[in-house]
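B., you asked whether I could sanity-check this one before it goes into the benchmark set. Here's the sequence:
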Amino acid sequence: MDSLDALFALERFGIRPGLDTIRLLVRAMGDPQSSYRTVIVAGTNGKGSVVAMADTALRAAGHRVGRYTSPHLQVLAERFVVDGAAIPERELRREAAELHEQVDRLRADGRLQHPPTFFEATTAIALSWFRRAGVDLALLEVGLGGRFDATNIVTPIAALITPIGLEHRQYLGDTLEAIAAEKAGVIKAGMVVVTTETTPTVVALFEETCRQRGARLVRADVGTTVRIAGVGDRPEIQVTTPQCAYPSFRLGLVGAHQVSNATGAIRLLEALSDMGVPVGADAIVTGLSTVVWPGRLELVRVDDRGAILLDAAHNPAAAAALSTYLRATFPTGLPIVLGAMRDKDVDGIVGALTPCATRFVCTAPDTPRAVPAIELAEGVRRRAGSTPVTADSTPWHAVEAAWRGSWTVCVTGSIVLVGEVRSALERSR
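And here's what the prediction gave me:
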């Protein structure tokens, strides 16, 4: 079997929280993560945006940076980025083949009782590739939770924890505090932990965890002032922290919610500078103003057909941020093409989006995890009141249906759906 086919075949094992398997894998590979410094980013929403901002700023400061994020929008290689470039396919195949060899060896001698999950395997590949590529620093986005996430085998010099929302309750718990405790599992002795969370009980939990483990907590909002200097899709902000008064600049990413992400990224980059990874004010401004992160409030114009707003909001908090943007930018509403995975809070997503939807067109991306279009439409009707709801099983046909009577449509609810529509757009061009 092709090494990448064998890698994707691991998806059948689903999610299996725990660190034993990934520890065995990286030990067999010579602990590649010990060859460079690491920063870990946990939380519910905004993790990818913060990683992208920090990556762009660190590279502007002259550092060679590895970036591991998940899931990918269109192709697997997007998860493994060094110096702004995705891993070449030939190198990805080599890394995957070497991983499979290690797995076979470990299983043959009885040390590994079962194959790794897909995420464990891709995490091991990322850590190995970053060593081979000679990075100075690796930015690792947590996949699920923190305490038992495969990324948590590293000993990071710093971490950032974005705001906590109710997600993956079957794995992480039913309350914000329980979920926050799982996210706080990334906190280790001697590191700096920056958080953009402001909920008092959650902040108190982070403070106590840092105290117990000998880490230092930096609350991004404390001692920081942010002045909105200009309006528009990309906010223009002027940030003053305890360390620096930054000149006014316009964010590279769209949406008011990116202001909090930017503040967190700034405080993280300042902390890294204090730890021997220098990032000057100019590099920080360059990074945050030029960063690109596809599929997040990304407006794509399609010849004379119209426009598509792509946003990977896949939980209620992200849908609420999207709703805030839609109400400000499209006050009369617009059609929403919606797809969702079975493990997501569809009612919460629909509840947030209904006030800005002229209608819903439900669809399903090509994955067994997706809710079928007709089933999704039935659920949306129960939550959307008088808003019209239809279904089309093919995402691109759903977009075309939504375009009838509207110049702009919004595609959301699933990163996989956004990736499929993005790929269809590229093929149509």
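One thing to flag: The chain is about 40% helix and 15% strand. Otherwise nothing jumped out at me.
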